[in-house]
């Protein structure tokens, strides 16, 4: 018997690739689900501020999208009404620092919930971040991420959709239903994945990796 020394992340990656291959073979409109918890994206400048000049974020585990990873490092979020401790940073660095929360989180912090696509932070609420080197006030950058589906251009052709299009998604299971207004995001850097936050995940009793159907 041959034993292979692989990490849990590598095993998850292998299973994910196998599932996506079977989906493509079947030619169906199903997509795996990724439920995103609250997290922080930082610029190079802000990484330096909290952890020291030229500090390299420490990968904790790989995420569903290629090159994206959760870090060992965390920061606290401080709003007008409350705070949330040890919110995980995601890498790599971004052009703009951004904090993604659920509506439930926003209410806890006392921050207006603004629905945006990731990266679209102009005119959004700010927040205070607390880390090893003290406090940093972001004047903008807090968003509730829009529901969206990552896919490659080949996936888009197969599904008959285009970048920026909004579709409906059918959820099966104990609390079945339809999510509307789901944004299609197309790039050959992406891997097929339906992204929702914890509020949507809980409302439909979704689980990580659960298959949902894009409705034409």
TrEMBL record:
The name this protein goes by in its record: Phosphate propanoyltransferase
Family to which the UniProt record says this protein belongs: Belongs to the PduL family.
Pathway(s) it belongs to: Polyol metabolism; 1,2-propanediol degradation
Cofactor(s) it depends on: Zn(2+)
UniProt-listed GO biological process terms: 1,2-propanediol catabolic process
Species name: Anaeromicropila populeti
Catalytic activity: propanoyl-CoA + phosphate = propanoyl phosphate + CoA
EC number: 2.3.1.222
GO MF entries: acyltransferase activity, transferring groups other than amino-acyl groups; metal ion binding
């Amino acid at each position: 018997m041959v034993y292979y020394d692989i990490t849990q992340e590598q095993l998850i990656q292998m299973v994910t690739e196998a599932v996506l291959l079977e989906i493509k073979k079947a030619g169906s409109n199903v997509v795996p689900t990724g439920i995103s918890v609250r997290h922080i994206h930082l610029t190079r400048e802000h990484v330096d501020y909290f952890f020291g000049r030229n500090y390299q974020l420490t990968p904790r585990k790989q995420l569903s999208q290629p090159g994206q990873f959760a870090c060992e490092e965390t920061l606290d979020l401080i709003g007008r009404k409350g705070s949330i401790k040890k919110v995980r940073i995601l890498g790599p660095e971004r052009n703009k620092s951004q904090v993604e929360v659920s509506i439930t989180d926003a209410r806890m912090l006392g921050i207006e919930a603004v629905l945006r696509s990731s990266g679209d932070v102009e005119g959004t609420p700010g927040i205070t971040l607390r880390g090893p080197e003290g406090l940093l006030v972001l004047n903008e950058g807090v968003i509730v991420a829009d529901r969206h589906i990552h896919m490659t251009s080949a996936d888009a052709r197969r599904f008959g959709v285009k970048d920026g299009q909004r579709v409906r998604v059918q959820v099966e299971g104990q609390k079945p239903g339809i999510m509307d207004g789901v944004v299609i995001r197309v790039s050959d850097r992406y891997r097929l994945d339906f992204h929702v936050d914890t509020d949507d995940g809980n409302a439909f009793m979704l689980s990580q990796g659960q298959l949902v159907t894009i409705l034409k």
